[in-house]
Design brief:
This protein has about 100 residues and is mostly helical. The chain has four helices and no strands.
């Protein structure tokens, strides 16, 4: 396994920072898997195969959410900003701008 997710010498990074980097990589990998399934589902003609892929994609969404929650528990400022954007009604860009201003 490569360690190209680090931009600094790994031995100089704290265990907490290395764990954070691993979880960031996991979020990226789960997002990629969600995308791959989305593309496959959109072209699949066999109904049973499509349902299996939809079930698998749902698992990837769960993993993505768990990884993201872990990261947000480690970064309280980021968590506060996301609370001002996620699951809110209204213009997403405006919500983001207001969250940034509040920071």
């Amino acid at each position: 396994m490569g360690f190209d997710q680090y931009h600094e010498p790994p031995q100089e990074l704290s265990e907490e920072t290395r764990t954070f980097a691993r979880m960031i990589s996991s979020v990226i990998e789960e997002a990629e898997a969600i995308d791959w399934y989305e593309q496959r589902i959109s072209v699949e003609k066999d109904d049973q195969a499509k349902r299996i892929m939809q079930n698998a994609q749902k698992e990837e969404f769960k993993h993505f959410a768990m990884d993201l929650e872990f990261l947000l528990r480690k970064k309280s400022k980021c968590r506060q900003m996301m609370k001002m954007i996620l699951f809110k009604e209204g213009d997403i860009v405006e919500l983001g701008e207001k969250a940034e201003e509040a920071e």
